[in-house]
Specification:
By secondary structure, the chain is α/β, with parallel strands linked by helices. The protein has nine helices and eight strands. Strands 1-2-3-4 form a four-stranded parallel sheet, covered by helices on one side. It has a four-stranded parallel sheet with strand order 7-6-5-8, with helices on both faces. Helix 5 links the parallel strand 3 and strand 4. It is globular and about 60 Å long.
């Protein structure tokens, strides 16, 4: 059982076509109020007509909507057979996603950026409740900033860390990159000696580095962006 679960975690993309059905199988018929937390499928739950369904939305599914073409490019999904099959799957999911969005009675978005996406793709209005940020344990060290810049990010293509690597390769300034992800090896191979990759670090260590850095580098476009909030707290 554990092996099957581990396989699922590593190969989630293989199960994309099954996610809508899985979400719709939840029996919520006994509830008067349902709150879904969603960035892909959870808003598609099926409720009774009198049940109030509120969706707290981190973003309409990005690889279906605003990041669709970039997603295809970064995964090298061209016009071959696999690329065509993937495009067909994503098209079917887009139809389901738009239909499922109509099941929500009230949208709550984590940022104004996300309200714009909900309006654009779901044709619905949303109120904003900003994403919670745990900054209580982040304390400025009080020391003078050192001569380095910092990135704290998952190293995935849409995070655009490669853009920062290119810039710091050119300017020669010291850059510290904290985080892991699918692009770790690729970015490390591209980086010059002034760029240091630290991988995963504890929250305490990250906060300390943020407090000591000259500035946070944040090259991507986020739904909300917790890292800038944490950086300002540090």
């Amino acid at each position: 059982m554990q092996k099957n679960y581990d396989l699922f975690l590593k190969k989630q993309k293989l199960f994309l076509s099954s996610f809508p059905k899985a979400v719709e199988e939840f029996d919520l018929s006994e509830f008067d109020i349902v709150i879904s937390s969603t960035n892909s499928f959870a808003h598609g739950v099926i409720t009774k007509p009198k049940t109030f369904h509120l969706s707290y939305c981190f973003s309409p599914t990005r690889y279906l909507w605003d990041w669709h073409h970039e997603y295809l490019a970064e995964n090298n999904l061209g016009s071959g057979l696999f690329g065509l099959l993937t495009r067909k799957l994503l098209s079917n999911l887009r139809v389901w996603d738009l239909s499922a969005a109509k099941r929500t009675d009230q949208w709550i978005a984590i940022s104004n950026t996300v309200t714009e996406r909900i309006k654009k793709y779901y044709r619905a209005d949303a109120k904003v409740i900003y994403s919670p940020a745990n900054i209580e344990g982040i304390k400025p060290t009080g020391r003078k900033p050192e001569n380095f810049y910092i990135i704290v990010s998952r190293l995935s293509p849409y995070k655009k860390v490669g853009l920062a690597v290119d810039a710091f390769n050119k300017n020669g300034k010291k850059l510290v990159i904290v985080g892991e992800g699918s692009e770790f090896a690729k970015l490390k191979n591209l980086a010059k000696a002034n760029i240091q990759f630290l991988g995963y670090l504890s929250d305490q260590k990250v906060a300390s580095l943020m407090s000591e850095a000259k500035a946070l580098i944040f090259p991507g476009e986020e739904d909300f962006g917790l890292t800038p909030i944490e950086s300002m707290a540090a």
